């Protein structure tokens, strides 16, 4: 059963059950009014007569009935049996198909979504997004998937991911994914146009969110950058470059891949933001801060707040407020570095490495 078909059938079944209950209530009210107003019985007697008639328990009449009232009672029995049978049929279908259990599960998922903050949003669940989700899951980063196609959405749910069935290009879907509280959006839809619309919508709803988009062509890369994407990745362009690098510099590629993905579980790379509210090293040089000596982690580069990049900073390089340190080390070294620097909070959607 796909997510889309479940939601559609669940709404239909709920409407049918409500309609059946309303019809049954109307039948009960009609029978009670007949015996109460036309037969001049008391209200309790009229309601009792209607109840035993609809339930077909076989009790005797409260008072003798004339032919007209007996014909009405026959019609009341037929209407009641049909209505109750219809309701029981709908309830049986709901129990067999597991609609109630799935409905409870969806309400629980909605509660989880409502409590999320500083999470990531993955738009689409194709081959690219599948690997993005695996990386986020391994790094224990909270995320939500927005997928409009039934089969990929069901696949993601079976893997234990939180999935919102909807079109990621629509504001409604992004709002349901709590984009106002999210820190990162990865648009990995198959169409460049859809990725463009998604980035535009995301930046409109949350200008501070970091938007990363997938692109198929160089022209799409430029358009997505103009639309406000903080990073654009083309699997074809990047894949071609990595293939060439693997052929020309295989050992370098193995080393870099191991660090970025943590394949060898030895060294990692992390980003650390120099926050002047917490960091005691603001204004100091790397030599004065003694980050390497105290933690063992290596500062590979520094991204200044205005965007300039300092690769291979020397001991005389000064640490300034708003700097982003790109560091390499073991999990324990990076954890120590995080404590030395404040402690500071990692840059958006990044957190200190966990122990493996």
Automatic annotation (TrEMBL):
Q: Which GO terms describe its biological process?
A: potassium ion transport
**Molecular function (GO) terms listed?**
monoatomic cation transmembrane transporter activity
- One Pfam family, short name please? Ion_trans_2
Q: What is its main location?
A: membrane
Q: Where is the RCK N-terminal domain?
A: 117-233
Its record classes its membrane topology as: Multi-pass membrane protein
- GO (cellular component) term, any one: plasma membrane
Q: Where in the cell is it found?
A: Cell membrane
| InterPro entries, sorted | K_chnl_dom, NAD(P)-bd_dom_sf, RCK_C, RCK_C_sf, RCK_N, Trk_Ktr_HKT_K-transport
How is this protein named in the record?
Answer: Potassium channel protein
